[in-house]
């Protein structure tokens, strides 16, 4: 994992936290336990980081819902 990956993960967690009204640790835990972090965000970084903040938040929210990590 590169520093760019870490920055992007931090960006995702922070923005999801704000959008979902949850703490950053809750969001990080949900991303990690659902597999979205290791199976989606990291491998798809090259494409994901080119999208808008709004798109990324919406996409990751949907990914978490599909995996049962959000109600």
List keywords for this structure.
71 residues, mainly alpha
Structural write-up:
The chain is an all-alpha fold. The protein is 75% helix and 0% strand. The protein contains 5 helices and no strands. The protein has helices at residues 3-20, 24-34, 36-41, 45-48, 53-66. α1 (3-20) packs across α5 (53-66). The longest helix has 18 residues, at 3-20. It is globular and about 30 Å long. The model has no long low-confidence stretch (mean pLDDT 96).
Overall pLDDT: 96
For the terminal residues, how far apart are their CA atoms?
30 Å
* Assembly type: single chain
- Ranges with pLDDT <50 over ≥5 residues? none
The helix/strand order is: HHHHH
Shape: globular
The total count of helices amounts to 5
How is the main sheet built?
none
How large a portion of the residues is in β-strands, by DSSP E? Answer: under 5%
Helix-strand makeup class: mainly alpha
Task: Briefly say what this structure is.
By secondary structure, the chain is mainly α. Helices cover 75% and strands 0% of the residues. The protein is built from five helices and no strands.
Break the fold down into its secondary structure elements and pairings:
Layout: H1 3-20, H2 24-34, H3 36-41, H4 45-48, H5 53-66
Helix pairs in contact: 1-2, 1-5
């Amino acid at each position: 994992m590169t520093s760019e990956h870490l920055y992007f993960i931090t960006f995702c967690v922070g923005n999801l936290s704000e959008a979902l009204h949850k703490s950053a640790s809750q969001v990080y835990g949900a991303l990690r336990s659902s597999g979205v972090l290791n199976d989606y965000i990291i491998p798809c970084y090259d494409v994901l980081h080119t999208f808008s903040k709004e798109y990324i938040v919406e996409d990751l929210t949907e990914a978490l819902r599909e995996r049962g990590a959000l109600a």
